[in-house]
Amino acid sequence: MKLISFATKFLHYLPSELSHSIALNGLKILYNLGILRYFIGNQVSLKNDVNNLSNLQEKLKMPKLSNRLGFAAGLDKNGEYIDCLASLGVGFIEVGTVTPRPQKGNAKPRIFRNRKDKSILNRLGFNNKGVDKLVKRLKTRKTNIVIGVSLGKNFDTPNELAYKDYLECMEKVYEFSDYLAVNISSPNTKGLRALSEKAVLGKLLIEIKNKQRSLANTFGYKPIFIKLSPDEDSRGMKDICDLIQEHNIDGIISTNTTIQHEDEKGRGGISGSPLFKLSTEKLIEARKLIGSDLPIIASGGVMNAQDFYEKITSGADLVQIYSGFIFEGPKLVKDVLNKN
Ligand SMILES: Cc1cc2nc3c(=O)[nH]c(=O)nc-3n(C[C@H](O)[C@H](O)[C@H](O)COP(=O)(O)O)c2cc1C
After folding, report:
1. Ligand 1 centroid to 84 CA: how many Å?
2. Which residue among 2, 19, 82, 258 is least crowded, i.e. fewest CB within 10 A of its CB?
3. Could you tell me where the DSSP H helices lie in the chain?
4. Ligand 1 site, residue 120, Cβ cutoff 6 A
5. CB atoms within 10 A of CB 53
6. CA geometry: angle 281, 286, 291, nearest 5 deg
7. How far apart are CA 90 and CA 311, in angstroms?
8. What confidence score (pLDDT) does residue 20 get?
9. Domains of the chain with CATH codes
């Protein structure tokens, strides 16, 4: 583990997108050689952190869930690292965000790390290899852990037709995933957040719910989560939560990155430590609005085991990490699983 922690720190001196790719490919090579466990040690405990796991599995409609810690969307956009990430001990991985057609995303540089305040600014814009490539990866994965797929729309699909992109991705990945996340909260695709406006979201949820019903007949029931923006005001939060209940959506992911920052690198969403407070406030607000029965997956600024615990006590059922993993490496997974 010490060697991996050293490598994680060293990689921070390289450009962010390059080091991200080196780190994940490095882990994958060690995993494929069968020696990753010698580097991370056997100390990653698979002990589940939940007293009554079967209640949680039932509430979330995820019978395979083994613990409450997972990787957030965007870390493995194309499902290329599922097996090696699963081997670190997490209970679930959300892959994507995927779009129907492959797309390059915004111009580089588009990821910036700030080591001082442990934050990441990104304006990637759904760079991904398209849904067909992702399906191939999902089909050939070896791990049996819970896999969520984050669904998006191509940058050049107008909002009036966005529902078609979500449905196309949903149809293709449904059979091979355990839950679906509808991403209407990324700040890096022009106009995407407008999909969370009341009238627009209502229509989208009707389409998604109908598609879920028909796919469930063939492939069984897979829950659908809506990923919220931390920049919603209280009116927006209430509208979205009302619609989620009205249309029997299965849960919420709280939250995506925030545009409330003055980072010198310009536009984009901020994640990591500075997001923790805001995303936890939105989590508490969402929990109040929807009551205790609806599942919430927390995302935003979890950098250590204490942060994980605070998300749970603030109303989360599951907790995702992304930036914390970039700064701390696999040690963060071990710390959370062993201390909770
Ligand atoms: C580089 C980067 C890429 C991301 N890509 C996606 C994405 O494709 N889809 C998505 O829903 N969220 C994406 N996110 C947001 C994360 O899933 C997560 O919600 C957010 O970073 C907050 O968690 P954190 O503070 O633990 O990083 C991305 C975040 C980062 C830093």
Report:
1. 19
2. 2
3. 2-11, 16-32, 36-40, 53-60, 82-86, 131-140, 162-173, 198-219, 234-246, 276-290, 305-313, 323-328, 331-339
4. yes
5. 15
6. 130
7. 16
8. 85
9. 2-339 (3.20.20.70)
Residue 87: active-site member:
no
CA atoms within a 13 Å half-sphere pointing along the CA-CB vector of 186? 27
Q: What is the 8-class DSSP label of residue 95?
A: E
- Beta-carbon contacts of residue 92 (< 8 Å; ≥ 6 apart): 62, 65, 70, 71, 145, 146, 147, 148, 178, 318
Please say whether the beta carbons of 151 and 204 come within 8 A. Answer: no
Pocket probe mutation, ligand 1, options 123, 270, 322, 332, max atoms within 8 Å of Cβ: 322
- Closest Cα to atom 12 of ligand 1: 73
Cα 42 to ligand 1 centre (Å) = 28
Q: Distance (Å, rounded) from C-alpha 143 to C-alpha 150?
A: 18
218 CA to centre of ligand 1 in angstroms: 31
Q: pLDDT tens digits, residue range 230-278?
A: 999 999 999 999 999 999 999 999 999 999 998 889 999 999 999 999 9
**Is the distance from CB of 283 to CB of 315 less than 8 angstroms?**
yes
Q: What is the rounded distance in angstroms from the CA atom of residue 247 to the CA atom of residue 226?
A: 12
pLDDT of residue 35: 85
What residues in the chain have per-residue pLDDT under 50?
43, 46
3-state secondary structure of 219: helix
Please return the burial class of 144, using the count of CB atoms within 10 Å of its CB with bins 0-12, 13-18 and 19+: exposed
